[in-house]
Specification:
16 helices, binds 2-deoxy-6-O-sulfo-2-(sulfoamino)-alpha-D-glucopyranose, binds calcium ion, 532 residues, eight-stranded mixed sheet, alpha/beta, 3 domains, Alkaline Phosphatase, subunit A
Length: 532
C-alpha cells in the first residue's frame, strides 16, 4: 500500500493534535477513558459506499434537471449531488448489465476481462478493486444484485439476488445457502446493508460496501409504499417518441425494444388477463406476492385494467397510454430507491461515518424512457451509453460541483483504489477520477471514449457495434452489417440525423475512423500492425 495524500493529511493532523494533548489523554486514560476515546477515532483510510442501481436513466434523476425532474423528484439522490459532484458525461464501456459490472470490478474493457455479454460467467480469479481493498485491510461487502454467475470473490460478506432477482419476497443467495425474505426488494437490500454497516463498525476497519439494487429493472414493479404515487400525473413525452428512424441504419430500424411492439401489456404494464395469468412472467412477478401485498396491488391496478379494456385504444393512442403507464411504474420504483438512499444517508450522518466516507451513486447503464420510441438500453446512443454518476466526500469535494469531462465506469476501480491509497495493477485501463472530483482535471485528460456492444443475436435484437465518441462527435460501426453512423451531438443531441455519407463531413468522419483505430490500439483491441 502506498501513502495516500487523500487521507494522510487528516492522519497527520490527528497525530499533531494527539502529541500536543498527549499529557491530557495520558491523564484521562489513568481514569479509564483512553481506550474508549481511541476506539472512536475514525479509520484513517476513507470508507467507500458504492450505491448502484440497475437501468436508472439519468433522465429520471432530478439532479440532472431533465424533462421528468419536476414531476418525479429524487430529493435524496440529489442530496449527494448537492453535497458533492454531478458528472454529466459518464459513459459505459458496454451498455448491458453484467459486462458493465465486470468493467467496474476490473477497471478493464470487456475484451480484456472476458465478460462481453450477459451470458458470460465472470472470471473471479482476476484482479478486482474489492479484492485489492480487502488485501489492504478493508472490510468489504456486496449486498443485492450481482448477475455475474460465478460466486463473488473479494468480499468478507455477500448476500446476492439470483440472476435478475425478484421485486416481491425476493430470494437471496448467501454462502452455502438460499433464502426467501418477505417484503420489497429495495427495502430489504437497504435493511441488510444498514445491518452490515452497523456490525462492521466494531471491526475498526475502513469499509467498502457495494449496495446494489435490482430496481428499476424491468418489469418495474412498484413497492407497497408507492403504489398510487404517480397515478394522477401525466408525464411529458420525449420529442422523438414516434421516431421513424429515417437517416438511421438497419440496427435502429430492426431492434426489438419499442414501446409500441415489444412492451408487453401483461408483464410490463400489469394488465393481467385470463390468458396471461400463470405464465412465466406472471409467476416471477405478481405471482410471488402474499395475499396482503396482492390486495394492495389489486386496489390500484384493477380499476386500471378495467378502464383499459373499455377504452379499446389503438395506434398512437395506445403507444401514448403505454408510455404513461411505463413512466408511472418506472418512476415510482425509483422513488423507492430514493427513499431508501435517504435512509442510508441519514444513518451515515447520524453515526458520523459521513465525515470519512466517499459516497458514490451510479447505475450499470442508462435507459430509454420513450426516446426513439424505446425502452431498454444496449445502443451507443446517448440515453443508454450515458449513466448517472454522483459522488460526495465531506471536506474533499466542493459541494454543488458539476463536471463535464469524459469519464467512464472503466474509471471506478482506479478511483476507489486511489482513495484508499492502494496501487492499481497495470491491467486496469481506466483512470482515477480523484483529481477530477477535486476540481483538478489533469491537462492530458482523455478526449475520446471507446464503446463495444456484443450481445447479438440476443434479447431486444440490437446488432453488435463499436464506436468512439468525443465531447462533440460520435462515430458508430455496426460491423456485422458494415454500416456506419455519425452524429454531431452539439447540433443534434437527440441523434436523429445520421450524417454518415454526407460530403461535407467526409474529412471529419475520416479523422474519427482514424481515432477509432487508434483507440482500439490503445486498449489492446487491435495491435499496431492490424489490418483494419
Ligand atoms: C431481461 C429483460 C430484458 C433485459 C435483460 C437484460 N427481460 O432479459 O428486457 O434487456 O434482462 O437486462 S425481462 O422480461 O426478463 O425483464 S440487464 O440489465 O440485466 O442487462
Ligand atoms: Ca442493467
Amino acid at each position: 500500500m502506498k501513502a495516500s495524500r487523500y487521507f494522510s493529511t487528516a492522519g497527520l493532523t490527528q497525530l499533531a493534535l494527539h502529541s500536543s494533548i498527549f499529557l491530557a489523554i495520558g491523564t484521562l486514560s489513568l481514569f479509564g477513558c483512553g481506550k474508549e476515546e481511541a476506539s472512536k477515532q475514525p479509520p484513517k483510510q476513507p470508507n467507500i459506499l458504492f450505491i448502484f442501481t440497475d437501468d436508472h436513466a439519468f433522465q429520471a434523476l432530478s439532479a440532472y434537471q431533465d424533462r421528468l425532474a419536476e414531476l418525479a423528484p429524487t430529493p435524496n439522490l440529489d442530496r449527494i449531488a448537492q453535497r458533492g459532484i454531478r458528472f454529466d458525461k459518464c459513459y459505459v464501456t458496454n451498455s448491458i448489465c453484467a459486462p458493465s459490472r465486470a468493467s467496474i470490478l476490473t477497471g478493464a474493457h470487456s475484451h480484456v476481462n472476458g465478460h462481453r455479454t450477459n451470458a458470460d460467467t465472470f472470471d473471479g480469479t482476476q484482479p478486482t478493486f474489492p479484492k485489492l481493498l480487502r488485501q489492504e485491510g478493508y472490510a468489504t461487502a456486496l449486498i443485492g444484485k450481482w448477475h455475474l454467475r460465478s460466486e463473488p470473490t473479494g468480499f468478507d460478506h455477500w448476500e446476492i439476488l439470483p440472476d435478475q432477482g425478484h421485486y416481491y419476497n425476493p430470494t437471496f443467495i448467501v454462502p452455502g445457502d438460499t433464502l426467501i425474505e418477505e417484503g420489497y426488494v429495495t427495502d430489504i437490500i437497504t435493511d441488510k446493508s444498514l445491518a452490515w454497516l452497523k456490525q462492521q463498525e466494531k471491526s475498526g476497519k475502513p469499509f467498502m460496501l457495494m449496495l446494489q439494487h435490482k430496481a428499476p429493472h424491468r418489469e418495474w414493479e412498484k413497492g407497497p409504499d408507492h403504489l398510487s404515487l404517480y397515478e394522477d400525473v401525466v408525464f411529458p413525452e420525449p420529442p422523438n417518441l414516434f421516431d421513424d428512424y429515417r437517416t438511421r441504419g438497419t440496427a435502429a430500424k430492426e431492434q426489438d425494444m419499442t414501446i409500441s411492439e415489444t412492451m408487453q401489456l401483461a408483464s410490463d404494464l400489469k394488465i393481467w388477463t385470463a390468458e396471461t395469468i400463470g405464465s412465466g412472467p406472471y409467476r416471477r412477478t405478481y405471482g410471488r406476492m402474499n395475499p396482503e401485498q396482492r390486495a394492495a396491488w389489486d386496489a390500484v391496478y384493477n380499476p386500471i385494467i378495467e378502464e383499459f379494456q373499455q377504452a379499446n385504444l389503438q395506434g398512437d393512442d395506445l403507444v401514448r397510454w403505454k408510455y404513461q403507464r411505463y413512466m408511472r411504474d418506472y418512476l415510482a420504483v425509483i422513488r423507492s430507491v430514493d427513499d431508501n438512499v435517504g435512509r442510508v444517508l441519514d444513518y451515515l450522518e447520524q453515526s458520523g461515518l459521513d465525515e470519512n466516507t466517499l459516497i458514490v451513486y451510479a447505475s450499470d447503464q442508462g435507459f430509454y424512457l420513450g426516446e426513439h420510441g424505446w425502452f431498454d438500453k444496449r445502443f451507443m446512443y446517448e440515453e443508454s451509453f450515458r449513466t448517472p454518476l454522483l459522488m460526495s466526500w465531506k471536506g474533499k469535494i466542493t459541494p454543488g460541483t458539476v463536471n463535464k469531462d469524459l469519464v467512464s465506469n472503466l474509471d471506478f476501480a482506479q478511483t476507489f483504489l486511489e482513495v484508499a491509497g492502494v496501487d492499481a495493477p497495470d491491467v486496469m485501463q481506466g483512470r482515477s477520477l480523484v483529481p477530477v472530483m477535486l476540481g483538478n482535471t489533469p491537462a492530458d485528460w482523455r478526449s475520446y471514449l471507446y464503446y463495444h456492444y456484443y450481445e447479438f443475436p440476443g434479447v431486444h435484437s440490437v446488432q453488435k457495434h463499436e464506436g468512439v465518441t468525443s465531447q462533440r462527435y460520435k462515430l458508430m460501426h455496426f460491423y456485422e452489417l458494415d454500416e456506419w453512423e455519425f452524429y454531431d451531438l452539439e447540433t443534434d443531441p437527440l441523434e436523429m440525423n445520421n450524417l454518415y455519407g454526407q460530403v461535407e463531413y467526409t474529412e471529419l468522419v475520416a479523422s474519427m475512423k482514424d481515432r477509432l483505430k487508434r483507440i482500439k490500439i490503445q486498449y489492446g483491441v487491435l495491435t499496431p500492425k492490424s489490418n483494419y
